[in-house]
Amino acid sequence: MSSNPFEAAMILDGIRRWVEVESPTERPDQVNKLADLVAEGYRDLSASVERVAGRDDRGDHLIARSSWGQGVPGILVLSHLDTVHPMGFIKRLPFKVEGDKAFGPGIYDMKGGAYLAYHAFRQICADDVRPPLGITHIYVSDEEIGSPTSRALIEAEGRKAKYVLVTEPARDGGKIVTGRKCIARFDVFIRGTPAHAGARPEDGCSAIRELGNVIQALETMNDLQRGITVNVGVVRGGTRPNVIPEDAYAEVDMRVPTLADAHKLVPTILGIKSRTKGVTVKITGELNRPPYEKSSAGAALYQHAKEIATELGFKLHDVFSGGGSDGNFTAAHTATLDGLGVDGKGAHTHYEQLYISSIEPRARLLYRLYQTLQ
Length: 374
Prior knowledge:
Layout: H1 8-19, H2 28-40, E1 47-52, E2 61-66, E3 75-80, H3 89-92, E4 96-98, E5 101-103, H4 107-126, E6 135-140, H5 151-160, E7 163-166, E8 176-180, E9 182-191, E10 195-196, H6 207-219, E11 229-237, E12 243-244, E13 247-256, H7 259-270, E14 280-289, H8 296-312, E15 318-321, E16 335-337, E17 344-345, E18 353-355, H9 359-372
Parallel strand pairs: 3-6, 3-7, 7-16, 8-15
Antiparallel strand pairs: 1-2, 2-6, 4-5, 5-18, 9-13, 9-14, 10-12, 11-13, 17-18
Helix pairs in contact: 1-4, 4-9, 8-9
């Protein structure tokens, strides 16, 4: 047995067990199967595990609390058990190791990081001395769809905490995340008038043609220099090629760096009108995640982590990310540090991977944060 409690091969074996339980957000039975495995891991630790029953066809959430330091502001760790990969994807992307890379669905986003935080907590429990602050680790089941059933839990626990550590994957070669954009989602519903496309086209009003107008209006809002992106990611409409389409539908993702941008653009998108007589446009949606802006408390937390990394022998840099996370829900009121998971690449892809060389230093960083934050 290795004398190194942070040996990468040992930790990777634990990550593998979590990866091999597929857990798509839309399969609460599978997410709960993984939650069973995670909860089992706390049985011999100085911790209690609370299980929050899933709702709205989503899986359960787990809350693991250290036996010490509860009742006063401490450390909140945020992780998610769900992945974007559908059931059966593990046949396309089985767990495997090639050199410094380990592959598998959700291994980078974010089962690797969630397991690192769990492993660091195991080591804290094995120590003779308890750290200054209590540790609460929440594993949610629906982060990949915007955390609709876990947001209230995250916000409530975040307000009680002194620090929030998020185990989303590292970025761009190991960078930590100290800021994220706000995210809004919209649904576009268009209703026109059907007609025979050959015999009586003049009787119809095309919903798809009007959707084209809406898409053009949305596309003009993109401003990459300012960090504003509006993406029409899903489009549906019509029934047959010889029928003027009565209905069209689109799903839209908007990301902006500040709340001021959101307050301007959300009403603009919701206010888009039809340009065609006889066609109606209805757009619904709202801000899905608030911005994660780097506060002075967040900057101080990052500086502390940076000093620990230097002691451990590596450099820690920070980055602003366009992707959202559950850290968006806590950053406005609690010092939050994100991107503390494994380094790697390919989140949400058929080549998702972590770098094995990042396992030990990132696990040690979490462990030292647990030990030293006060």
